[in-house]
Amino acid sequence: KNIVILISGRGSNMQAIVRAAAAEHWDCRIAAVVSNRPDAEGLAFAAAHGIATAVVPSKQFASRDDFDAALREEIDRHAPDLVVLAGFMRILTPAFVAHYQGRMLNIHPSLLPSFPGLATHRQALAAGVKIHGATVHFVTAELDHGPIVAQAAVPVLPGDTEQSLAERVLREEHRIYPEAVHWFIEGRLKIEDGVVHLDAAQT
Ligand code: GRF
């Protein structure tokens, strides 16, 4: 199976997936890492690991539709079975999302459905929640609302800052995102009435 990973910056979740795929000998190929920003730090890691990289510079497109069409063309050159959004900071058009329905995953740094959108750690601190975390979900047209594949929770501790909380959540992201992608590769994820079921592993 082919995986295309989309990033916008550091790409630490992408790195976690690339490392896990190699270490655990997943039955798949990371066909490409695509960024909407030419300066995304994660591109260098991907190239150093022999993965094809591409940039579709969102700033250079007049409209969201034009950008999404170019992005889709670049992604589909690699015939992906799965598209993985890993810190990809662009809102995608409904047509784009529909094209990858059931085969595009995202990670969001909150326990959805709490705190969709941006600045999730700030939102969590402002709300005074005592538990926070991360969610892997299928991408649907409504931002940060698709069927939930995996979640991990962390405590919010006294004295936490946005940064300390983000670091604690990120460690969990690096654990659950590779695991969820592996489940997809193994064909173990079923969506029924908007709810994801995990089939037992084949032995
Ligand atoms: C992660 O916290 C991700 O959940 C969020 O942006 C951050 C991206 O980090 N949407 P990285 O690029 O994977 O290092």
From TrEMBL:
Extract the Pfam families matched here.
Formyl_trans_N
- PROSITE patterns, per this entry? GART
| Entry's EC annotation | 2.1.2.2
Q: SUPFAM superfamilies annotated for this entry? A: Formyltransferase
The residues listed in the UniProt record as binding (6R)-10-formyltetrahydrofolate, with positions renumbered to this chain, are 64, 89-92, 106
- The keyword Aminoacyl-tRNA synthetase appears for this protein: no
**Catalytic reaction list:** N(1)-(5-phospho-beta-D-ribosyl)glycinamide + (6R)-10-formyltetrahydrofolate = N(2)-formyl-N(1)-(5-phospho-beta-D-ribosyl)glycinamide + (6S)-5,6,7,8-tetrahydrofolate + H(+)
The pathway that the record names for this protein is: Purine metabolism; IMP biosynthesis via de novo pathway; N(2)-formyl-N(1)-(5-phospho-D-ribosyl)glycinamide from N(1)-(5-phospho-D-ribosyl)glycinamide (10-formyl THF route): step 1/1
InterPro entries in alphabetical order: Formyl_transf_N, Formyl_transf_N_sf, GART, GART_AS
Keyword annotations: Purine biosynthesis, Transferase
- Binding of N(1)-(5-phospho-beta-D-ribosyl)glycinamide: at which residues? 11-13
Q: Name the site position(s) for Raises pKa of active site His.
A: 144
- The active site consists of 108 (proton donor)
Q: List each copy of the Formyl transferase N-terminal domain by range.
A: 1-181
UniProt cross-references to HAMAP family, sorted A to Z: PurN
The free-text function statement in the UniProt record for this protein reads: Catalyzes the transfer of a formyl group from 10-formyltetrahydrofolate to 5-phospho-ribosyl-glycinamide (GAR), producing 5-phospho-ribosyl-N-formylglycinamide (FGAR) and tetrahydrofolate.
Q: Which NCBIfam families does this UniProt record tie to the protein? A: PurN
Q: Which family does it belong to?
A: Belongs to the GART family.
- PANTHER family under this entry? PHOSPHORIBOSYLGLYCINAMIDE FORMYLTRANSFERASE
Protein name from the UniProt record: Phosphoribosylglycinamide formyltransferase
Q: Which organism is it from?
A: Noviherbaspirillum aridicola
Name of encoding gene:
purN
